[in-house]
Amino acid sequence: MVKKLLNFKKVTILAVALLAVSFGAKAQSWYIMGEYIWSPPNPQGTFNELHYQAEDVEINGMDYHTIYAAGERSLLGAYRKEDNQVYYCKWNGSDYDEEVLLYDYDLEEGDFFNDMDDHPMLVTSVTTITDFNGIERKKYDFMFIGLEDETEYWIEGVGSNKGFVNRGVYTPTNQGAIFHLLCYHVGNELIYVNPEYNACDIDDINETPDNVVSIYPNPANNVVRVLSESNTPIRKIEVIDLLGRIVATANNSEFIDVSSLPEGQYLMKVYGETTIMRKLTIAKQ
């Protein structure tokens, strides 16, 4: 059965990462790579962005999770989940816009869904993929009615390949920008990795919203020290590789030994009054 087309207000294209729809205490983050396509046919450059879930907020009596862009630490909007649907309120600079339905994971092949520029999206197939942790998720492929060669896909519980708030936005291949999700985390658990890339790049991970700890030396090759600017005791430190594996741990200490780790990029997760992620580089001298 073809579902009734939904009407949404047109929104400005935002360079943001994909959004998961599972609620819980663990923070969520999305890392994307974009390509500038101002001078076709070849990309003229690339950019990387990190987006993250932060504090909760109440809007019209309902609970939402806020979404920030890490590079500018700017508020993008807030989302909530209800059953298999995801709802979103965009931040307009002074207040939240009216809620829109952003994702519907009850869609079936042959159903229509209206994109954010009023171009109907047709579900051309619904398949199953296996995420990084072996969990099966639906994958929805779309074509845009009236837009030649425009396609999009969603991953259940993650979002659109174009970006969370970019769901349904027209991205012509001869202008504008094209976005690629590299990875999606819940806390420090790696959930999704783009199969076209070998690893999740984390160059912007230092742009987290809460700068209350610092680490040094960084790059490091032996022992790393974690300093809390608020003098909060450090309960635990974890070092996590780009595959999401915990490769070093220290409890009740501000020091952690990384001498056995190979060179490369890592995440350092610090448990104190709050839980904070930092990027750590291992470089052998």
Helix content: under 10%
Question: What structural category do the secondary elements indicate?
Answer: mainly beta
Strand order of the largest sheet: 6-5-4-3-2-1-12-13
What is the number of E strands?
20
Task: Summarize this structure as a short list of keywords or feature phrases.
285 residues, mainly beta, Immunoglobulin-like, eight-stranded antiparallel sheet, 0% helix, globular, disordered N terminus
Please provide a written account of the structure:
- The structure is a single chain.
- The protein is mainly beta and 285 residues long.
- The protein is built from no helices and 20 strands.
- It has strands at 28-36, 45-59, 62-69, 74-82, 85-90, 100-104, 112-114, 120-130, 136-144, 151-155, 159-160, 177-186, 189-193, 213-216, 223-228, 236-240, 246-251, 255-257, 264-271, 275-282.
- The strands form four sheets. The protein has an eight-stranded antiparallel β-sheet, with no helix packed on it. The chain has a five-stranded antiparallel β-sheet with strand order 7-8-9-10-11, with no helix packed on it.
- A hairpin with a 5-residue loop joins strand 7 and strand 8 (120-130).
- The termini are far apart.
- Mean pLDDT is 75; it is low at 1-25 and 201-210.
